[in-house]
Every structure is written in structure tokens, then in C-alpha cells.
Amino acid sequence: MKRVDDFRLKFGQKEYVPIVVGGMGVDISTAELALETARLGGIGHISDAMVNDVSDRRFDTSFVRDKTRLYRHNIFNADKSDVKFDLDILAEATRRHVGATMEAKKGDGLIFVNCMEKLTMNGPRETLQVRMNSALDAGIDGITLSAGLHLGSFGLIADHPRFRDAKLGIIVSSVRALQLFLRKNARLQRKPDFVVVEGPLAGGHLGFGLDWAQFDLATILAEVIKFVKDEQLNIPVIAAGGIFTGSDAVSFLESGSAGVQVATRFTVATECGLPADVKQDYYRANEDDIEVNTISPTGYPMRMLKSSPAIGDGIRPNCESYGYLLDGNGNCAYITSYNRELALHPDGKNIKVMDKTCLCTQMRNFKLWTCGHYTYRLKDTTRKNADGSYQLLSAEHIFNDYLHSVEHQIALPA
Fold this sequence. Notes:
GO terms for molecular function: dioxygenase activity; nitronate monooxygenase activity. By secondary structure, the chain is an alpha/beta fold. The protein has a domain at 4-273 and 386-404: Aldolase class I (TIM Barrel, Alpha-Beta Barrel). It has helices spanning 31-39, 51-59, 63-70, 87-103, 124-137, 153-156, 175-184, 217-230, 246-254, 276-284, 333-344, 359-364, 395-404, and strands spanning 9-11, 14-16, 19-21, 43-47, 110-116, 142-146, 167-172, 194-198, 204-205, 237-240, 259-262, 290-293, 302-305, 312-313, 352-353. The protein has an 8-stranded parallel beta barrel with strand order 3-4-5-6-7-8-10-11, surrounded by 6 helices. Strand 3 (19-21), helix 1 (31-39) and strand 4 form a beta-alpha-beta unit. It starts with 8 loop residues before the first strand and ends in a 10-residue tail after the last helix.
């Protein structure tokens, strides 16, 4: 009977433990979590979501405070088009976060940064280019392109000296998306080093519509693996979304996946950036406490706990401090919804916005509890304490359970 430890993820001549811990923002996939994953021989992710704020919390910089002060005059203005990110500061924040993480790296694994195309930041092309180039400057092992097709992203870093050295990969949810990406980037003569195929049971934003339940990871994965093989592309394909046990992982590895990407079980790791009380909410969740809704301003459906305080919260848009989802014209779907409700309640009191949420502020404050489909099973991975709380687990414990378990068994902590 095979275990995950019987397989290896290969990049060229080098081999790694085939476990990738996904990039959960905002600093939920902390540097500590990524470093522990790399130490154990796998691939860990940090996220560059809201990296200015992450830098402030990690290094005591004042990037968010300074930006708020600069645009204070615009706080009550419905038009956010003037709110811009200073690209030099964005570069510095990224280099600090990535650089400090890479300097602390030990072990034989790798650390990647998860880079979301949907963080348009009122300058989609410029801000994305700065984030990717700065991560490469700071020595990141690789970049995983997420939250969008990234058809032009490779081109934004094609002139960087590490363009053909760092591992570059893309997340897709269909073979068609991969075909489109390859076709659009053929002129660069630079294929992805890996492809993550994310199924409909993943946490957070989904690459599907509200018909997500009609799809399944195994089918999509088989289609992508067949395409890669038929085209003789020699690109490792990594399965993601709903892989809860080591036995789940083995089933995908045996079917041709080069590795598996997991995240849900690591949300309750001690190294994870979620506050301790929120981790307990994840543990307590039942299956009917989880929903897929459309409140994200990105336009993607998103899976979360129904008890998330962000749902229905009519908080004033705080783009002057954050504004990571502002499009190139300074618009955001939440701002539109908020202004609609403000027109109905001009006193600004008792405003509830049900159709969208202020993703930046709510994620920064850990009030939007995105989660994977199997979050309700987390309580079965640990022990209940005498006070009714659940025992938190170390990333090493979770990682090793994936690595060695058989027959869908889950090793409880001592």
C-alpha cells in the first residue's frame, strides 16, 4: 500500500516531497508556514496579497499609514480613481517580505509566492509587474500565478535575469485555460515549469461559476494530464482542491499527478496566520455552515463560512488605506454596492451590503473566513480539550500525516 512518501515531485534533475502548501492570503500562509514546509522538503507558499500591510505587521514599516495620510482628503469621496499605489514602496514591501523569508529558509524544499492577477490596485499592469519582478529580485524560488488567466504575466517579467531560472507556474481549472495560456505565451519560448489544476472543492475563490458542483477534480486533472502528455510538454501537473488525507493524495499521484497542493488542514496549524479564535470557528464548523457565494468584488464565486462577520457588513470602503481591488479606473464592485445603500441611508447608519463585501478591509481584519469544502472535517484531525476548544496542530504534524498515512487514516496529536 503506497504512501505519499513513495512519490517525488521532479523539477528537472531535482526531487522534492510532492506536497505543496497553497498560498492563502492575507498572510494566512505566513512565512513561518512556508519555511516549515520547505524545511520538511516540500513546497511552501507565501502570498503577496496586500503586501504593504503584511510588511507593516511583520517589519513595523508604516506603508499603510503613510498611504492613508496621503489620501485622507478622499476618504468620503465616492470616486477612488485618484488613489494610487507608490510603485517604489510596493517594490520595497515585496522585497522585504520575500527577502526575509528566503534568508531564513532551511532544508531541501522550495518557497514560492502566490501572485493574484485580480489584485488590480488601480494599475493592473504596473503593480503586477512590480510585485513579480520584486519577488524575483528578492530571491524567491518560484511564482505561482493565480486568480486569473495571467495571459500577459510572463511578458511582464521576460526581461528579468531570473525569468528562465525561477520556477513559474499557473493555476487553471480547465484544459482550455491551459491551452489559451500556452498559445498566448508561445512567442516567449518559455513554458510554465508547473501547472496546478484546482478543482471545485478548493477554498476561497473558485475558477468556476455557480455550477461548480457539476465539475470534479479527477476529470479535469485527467484531461490536463492527457493534453500535456499528447503535446509532449513535460510539465509537472499538480492536483489541488479537496485533498484531505494522504490516501486522497496517493490516488491523484497514482493517476499521474506530479504532486498535490493542500491548504485546508493547514489553516489550523500553529504557524498559520489566522487568529486563534478564528481557528476554533473552523474546527467547530459543520458541513451546512459552509457556502459558496458571490459577495467577492472580483466576480469569482467564493467558498467561506456562513458565520463570517464580513457577510452583510456595510463597512465604508477603505481604499485610501488599501484599495487592492480597484480596477484601472478606480472602480470596485463593493464601492458600487456601498454607494447604492448609502443613497438609501444618507445618515450612514445601519448600512448593510449583502451582495458584495469590502474584501480588502475584511480580509485584513480576518473577518472573511474563506475555507475549503472539507473544513467541517477538521474536528476529526485533532483532540478536543477539556474546555471545549480544539487542540491546534503543528505544520510538521499535518505535513507528516499527509506523507505517511494509509487507508484514509488521520494521525491524532499526542
